[in-house]
Amino acid sequence: QVQLVESGGGLVQAGGSLRLSCAASGSIFRINDMDWYRQAPGKQREFVATITNGGSTNYANSVKGRFTISRDNAKNTVYLQMDSLKPEDTAVYYCNAAIIQASGLMRTYWGQGTQVTVSS
């Protein structure tokens, strides 16, 4: 059994910062890519950022230069540092991870989501 638990969301004024965390727990052998997605009301879920097990990163154009993804492999945790936040960043943020379990089974898992609200 594997779980992803996000934390760190909240309400912030435009121009402010938030740091999201997502911790994976359970019977884990290895975690490959870890990603952040977001879904605003009435919109489809969209990609935000990804990081490989080795630390290579990629970002959506809309957040490039403002958001930073990082991970701590020893803690099975991925972070999203969000700076210079804009009202259009308001969404539920979800983490996603490609996990190889101790049994050898590989699948992707989603967290439950954390709300980020940016006021103007």
Structure notes:
This protein is an all-beta fold and 120 residues long. Helices cover 0% and strands 62% of the residues. The chain has no helices and eleven strands. Strands 2, 4, 5, 6, 9, 10 and 11 form a seven-stranded mixed beta sheet that branches. The chain is elongated. The termini are far apart. The model has no long low-confidence stretch (mean pLDDT 97).
* Model regions low in confidence, pLDDT < 50 over at least 5 residues: none
Query: What composes the largest sheet?
Result: 7 strands, mixed
Number of strand elements = 11
In N-to-C order, the SSE pattern is: EEEEEEEEEEE
Instruction: Report the C-alpha radius of gyration, rounded.
Output: 14 Å
Our estimate of the beta-strand percent is: over 45%
Distance between the termini: 41 Å
Give the overall shape, derived from the CA principal axes.
Answer: elongated
Tags for this model:
4-stranded antiparallel beta sheet; mainly beta; 0% helix; single chain; 7-stranded mixed beta sheet; elongated; 120 residues
Would you spell out the secondary-structure blueprint of this structure?
Blueprint: E1 2-7, E2 10-13, E3 18-26, E4 28-39, E5 46-51, E6 57-59, E7 67-72, E8 77-82, E9 91-101, E10 106-110, E11 114-119
Tell me briefly what this model is.
This protein is mainly beta and 120 residues long. The protein is built from no helices and eleven strands.
